[in-house]
């Protein structure tokens, strides 16, 4: 009987674990799980007392199992166990809410907003005037959604800011003059946006996030950015305005991306990179400035070798 999931090092009776690499084989010494997911190449590492479930993609299988075992953990829990519309929420009379919408205390829903069935608006969240939110979405506590159209099955985590003004100014005789921001944010189905992430509204066009894209905590997405379907964007990424990102793009943590450039479908950007120019489809880039990964790794190897050589000469002089 499988009741929960756990890391290999502390798996116990009733737990399901997964093994991705030989680097974690030492953790098996303390594992007492009821089963381990792995591929055939790692099967021999698993102690004989633990049943093995073979899967070509064990991490994917583990994710599916986790969703089945812990369905309530698939989206943020409500702060209060209230159903329906809290008496302490503020909902404009012109807002249109379908049946089975839950609005927690201190949430505010503006004029002419529309919210679909099964959607939950968390405590203290703000839904601006004219915002449209689809069905089975979660807008977690403290988030704000303004000037936006949001599809179905979207999760927006605590403190995220969607649809505020972007950074747009023109130089004037007495300083910077604000450029009006009158576009929207369009978020398609099955998107997840992490805590304290910001997605700016478009200047005149729209900022768009494609279906199935997953965005981590503390990401900044500038105005008029267009992100394709099924992308993965890790924490601390900053994407400047009017950048176009294709489908299936993976961007590592703390990457900075210049504005008005294009990153092609299926590209991968290594963590801590600075992207200043277009990235072709399917390419792997890294470094500052970002360049093809083989070039980046060669440059790193050369710098490491030169540094080692200098250190050796310095050591000889000191001797």
From TrEMBL:
The UniProt keywords, alphabetically, are: Acyltransferase, Lipid A biosynthesis, Lipid biosynthesis, Lipid metabolism, Repeat, Transferase
MF terms (GO), sorted A to Z: N-acyltransferase activity; UDP-3-O-[(3R)-3-hydroxyacyl]-glucosamine N-acyltransferase activity
Q: What is its EC number?
A: 2.3.1.191
Q: Does the keyword Transferase apply?
A: yes
Q: Quote the pathway field.
A: Bacterial outer membrane biogenesis; LPS lipid A biosynthesis
Which sites are catalytic? 223 (proton acceptor)
- InterPro entries from the UniProt entry: Hexapep, Hexapep_transf_CS, LpxD, Trimer_LpxA-like_sf, UDP_GlcNAc_AcTrfase_non-rep
Catalytic reactions of this protein: a UDP-3-O-[(3R)-3-hydroxyacyl]-alpha-D-glucosamine + a (3R)-hydroxyacyl-[ACP] = a UDP-2-N,3-O-bis[(3R)-3-hydroxyacyl]-alpha-D-glucosamine + holo-[ACP] + H(+)
Which is one Pfam family of this protein? Hexapep
Instruction: Report the record's Gene Ontology biological process terms.
Output: lipid A biosynthetic process
Assembly mode? Homotrimer.
Give the family per the record: Belongs to the transferase hexapeptide repeat family. LpxD subfamily.
Q: What does this protein do?
A: Catalyzes the N-acylation of UDP-3-O-acylglucosamine using 3-hydroxyacyl-ACP as the acyl donor. Is involved in the biosynthesis of lipid A, a phosphorylated glycolipid that anchors the lipopolysaccharide to the outer membrane of the cell.
Protein name (database record): UDP-3-O-acylglucosamine N-acyltransferase
* Lineage, uppermost ranks: Bacteria, Pseudomonadati, Pseudomonadota, Alphaproteobacteria, Hyphomicrobiales
Gene that produces this protein: lpxD
């Amino acid at each position: 009987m499988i009741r929960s999931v756990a890391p290999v090092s502390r798996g116990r009776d009733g737990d399901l674990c997964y093994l991705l690499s030989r680097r974690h084989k030492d953790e098996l010494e303390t594992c007492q799980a009821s089963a381990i997911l792995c591929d055939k190449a790692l099967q021999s590492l698993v102690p004989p007392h633990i049943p093995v479930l073979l899967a070509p993609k064990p991490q994917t299988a583990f994710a599916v199992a986790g969703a089945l075992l812990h369905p309530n953990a698939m989206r943020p829990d409500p702060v209060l166990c209230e159903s329906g519309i809290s008496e302490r929420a503020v909902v404009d009379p012109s807002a249109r809410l379908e049946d089975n919408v839950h609005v927690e205390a201190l949430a505010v829903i503006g004029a002419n907003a529309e919210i679909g069935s099964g959607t939950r608006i968390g405590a203290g969240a703000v839904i601006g005037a004219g915002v449209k939110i689809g069905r089975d979405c979660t807008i977690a506590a403290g988030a704000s959604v303004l000037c936006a159209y949001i599809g179905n099955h979207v999760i927006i985590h605590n403190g995220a800011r969607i649809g505020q003004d972007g950074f747009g100014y023109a130089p004037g005789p007495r300083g910077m003059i604000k450029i009006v921001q009158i576009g929207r944010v369009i978020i398609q189905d099955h998107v997840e946006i992490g805590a304290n992430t910001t997605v700016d509204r478009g200047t005149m066009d729209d900022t768009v996030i494609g279906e199935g894209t997953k965005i981590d905590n503390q990401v900044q997405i500038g105005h008029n950015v267009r992100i394709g379907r099924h992308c993965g964007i890790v924490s601390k990424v900053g994407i400047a305005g009017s950048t176009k990102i294709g489908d299936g793009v993976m961007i590592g943590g703390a990457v900075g991306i210049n504005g008005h450039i294009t990153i092609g479908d299926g590209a991968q950007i290594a963590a801590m990179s600075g992207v200043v120019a277009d990235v072709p489809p399917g390419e792997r880039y890294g470094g500052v400035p970002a360049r093809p990964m083989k070039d980046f790794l060669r440059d790193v190897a050369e710098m490491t070798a030169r540094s080692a050589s200098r250190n050796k000469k310095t050591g000889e002089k000191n001797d």
